[in-house]
Design a protein that fits this description.
The protein is of the alpha/beta class. It has eleven helices and 14 strands.
Amino acid sequence: MKSKLLLLCLLTPSLFAGTKLIVLGSGTPNPDPNRAGSSYALVVNETPYLVDFGPGVIRRAASLSPSWGGEIEAMTVKNIEHAFLTHIHSDHSAGLADLLLTPWVMGRDVKLNLFGPIGLKQMASSTLNAFEDDINYRINGTQPSNKTGYKYNFNLLHEGLIFKDENIMVEAFKVPHGGFDDAYGFRFTSEDRVIVFSGDTGPSKKLEKFAKGADILVHEVYSNAGFLEKTQDWQKYHQAHHTSTFEVGEIASRAKPKLLILSHILFWGSTKDEILQEIKSTYDGEIKIAEDLMIFE
């Protein structure tokens, strides 16, 4: 009997922790209607943690919840209480108003915990100021409401450990994204998985270090073939802000994640197969191209 209990304890992390990675938005600034703005959710022990909140984030999350025909209770939007922002570019952050207000309207009664660069604090404050009349009407009118769920706690990012609870540990590290001094990647560690997000970045040795041996590396990428067709000014911009297919392959070859997920893809006319062919010229590991609402578990 004791041996069976010991076996159950040893199996518990893999059987019951069940970390899920959900792609809520795999897009770029280009308004592709099939790809919402950059956003991901980690679900650990039925607790959701967002990474970025681009346009469409709340609707994408809701589509996976039981209320709207899905099967993931954690994606019921009132359950979203933690969100981590890699940087303040609008394709990663323009869903902020929806993130602050809609879960509150749907019943969230605790403050949203926001983790991000200093610009996020101003964005959140300005958003609530902009919606002041709406908030006051909902609180003071006949609609059932609470006075807390639209508010937030702001946590300024820094390199190192930024958050830890009973489910996850989150580390942040700076990445090179043009002139942004406050652009970050994240490493999430749960009982059963290590998942690393590149954020928007050029090639980064620091990212390689944090991604070493990870279960999943989610990395942005651009088509090298498409890059060659760009004018010199755009080539200069993209080289400083993003990572080519060949470069991502080289990074993954050294970091050796168990799975490389390509997201925030600048296709520039290339097909998915052509993107994969370019990556595979420098990397022979497992690769998936992200699509909205993909679930990895």
